[in-house]
């Protein structure tokens, strides 16, 4: 199986514990979070709407909420992508191991996670 994921979602998925914007979003995110643990899953990276965004009520005209918010989201993606090779198709399990090793402290994610509304529900952020 092949997934397309935007940079910052590589962190969100690690912290996901069933909370989200609506039922449809949570169902899709839960499925993706299971799929990404399979040995047969590969991942392409992006800073645009991805397989998670496609079931999100915040996606409007291919933007996350609006032009201003979208800019912030894209810069969060690019912070993550700058530590990876965005042209490469990664094997999912290996990619998440790599990401875990790179983003392993609160300092390493401060430009990505600092203003996120999900801090109190995100296991990834809480464990840093
Ligand atoms: S549209 Fe925005 S809020 Fe929704 S999943 Fe994508 S990045 Fe997150």
Share in helix? 40-55%
Instruction: State the assembly state of the protein chains.
Output: single chain
Structurally, the number of domains stands at 1
Q: Nearest-angstrom radius of gyration? A: 14 Å
Structural class: alpha+beta
Summarize the biggest pleated sheet. Answer: 3 strands, mixed
Number of helices: 6
Write out the distinct hetero groups bound to the structure. iron/sulfur cluster
Unreliable stretches covering 5 or more consecutive residues: none
Key attributes of the depicted protein:
alpha+beta; 3-stranded mixed sheet; two-stranded antiparallel ribbon; binds iron/sulfur cluster
How would you characterize the overall build of this protein?
The chain has about 130 residues and is of the alpha+beta class. It has one domain (about 1-125). The chain is about 45% helix and about 10% strand. The protein is built from six helices and five strands; from the N terminus they run βααβββαβααα. The protein has helices at about 10-15, 25-35, 65-80, 90-100, 110-115, 125, and strands at about 1-5, 40-45, 60, 65, 90. The strands form two sheets. A three-stranded mixed β-sheet has the order 1-2-5. It has a two-stranded antiparallel sheet with strand order 3-4. The mean pLDDT is about 95. Bound molecules: iron/sulfur cluster.
């Amino acid at each position: 199986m092949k997934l397309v994921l935007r940079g910052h979602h590589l962190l969100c998925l690690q912290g996901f514990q069933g909370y989200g914007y609506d039922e449809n979003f949570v169902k899709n995110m839960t499925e993706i979070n299971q799929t990404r643990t399979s040995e047969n899953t590969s991942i392409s990276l992006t800073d645009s709407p991805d397989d998670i965004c496609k079931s999100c009520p915040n996606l409007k005209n291919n933007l996350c909420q609006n032009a201003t918010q979208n800019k912030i989201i894209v810069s969060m993606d690019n912070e993550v992508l700058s530590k990876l090779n965005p042209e490469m198709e990664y094997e999912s399990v290996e990619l998440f191991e790599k990401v875990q090793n790179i983003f392993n402290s609160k300092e390493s994610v401060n430009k990505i996670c600092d203003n996120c509304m999900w801090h109190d529900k995100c296991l990834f952020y809480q464990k840093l």
